[in-house]
Specification:
Blueprint: H1 3-23, H2 29-48, H3 50-58, E1 62-65, H4 69-76, E2 80-83, H5 89-92, E3 104-107, H6 111-122, E4 126-129, H7 136-148, E5 152-155, H8 170-178, E6 182-189, E7 192-194, E8 202-204, E9 209-214, H9 226-251
Parallel strand pairs: 1-9, 2-5, 2-6, 3-4, 3-5
Antiparallel strand pairs: 6-9, 7-8
Length: 261
Amino acid sequence: MNARDRRRQRRDEQRRAAAERERAGRNVPWLARWRRWRRAAGAALLAVAAPAALRVLAATWRVRVAPGPGRDLLQRGAPALLTLWHGRMLAAMPLRGHRGRGIAVLVSPSDDGDLARQALRRFGYRVVRGSLSRGGARALRELAAELADGGPIVLTPDGPRGPRHALNAGVAWLARATGAPIVPVALAVDRAWRLRSWDRFVIPKPFARLVVTFGDPIHAPADATDERLEELGNHVRATMLAGERAAFAALGVADDLDGAA
């Protein structure tokens, strides 16, 4: 399958997911209004209470971060593209070594992105609004500027709408354009609440054990073709999934990847 066919396949998956939401009655007007109200209320609550509650919760977690070159890049604050699945964002946000360092995070321009933006800023992250697909050109320019300033950025390549564990080609494109390496991040937790959202958003329970790994840096050659970038993206995705399977195995619990290949 070539790069164009893979992009078409991702678009088809997104259309199927939208059609499924329509058939399930999740797009009716009254439900849309309820969602908007709920998000507005959630934003107000999140801004006031959630960061403090998350700090208390995270203080009980037992976190093990595996050593390696990818982690070394983060600790040095070197330019790098850290890729993390959308559903792991909250679990990674308050971790020591991540928070309070001014790391830039790409956040979607959606209502859900507004909620994430407030929490991220409270934990000392910088926020770039946009996505690698919707309004992607402007977001990519801002991310390139962040990398030029000399620091890591975090991307959730299957956000903001999925499909879960898909990887947008924008990650590899940005790596080629800037020369910054991609560092695939994997996160596993032994005890968590998992929301019934498309990304199965993970909230570790009190005293949960977490394992975080940073894969070896992956470089995109400056002369890489679109086909090569597609292959590189597939490699990043496979590395993220393999890292999470290994992390779950280290915890001695079943993974929550639902058969992702």
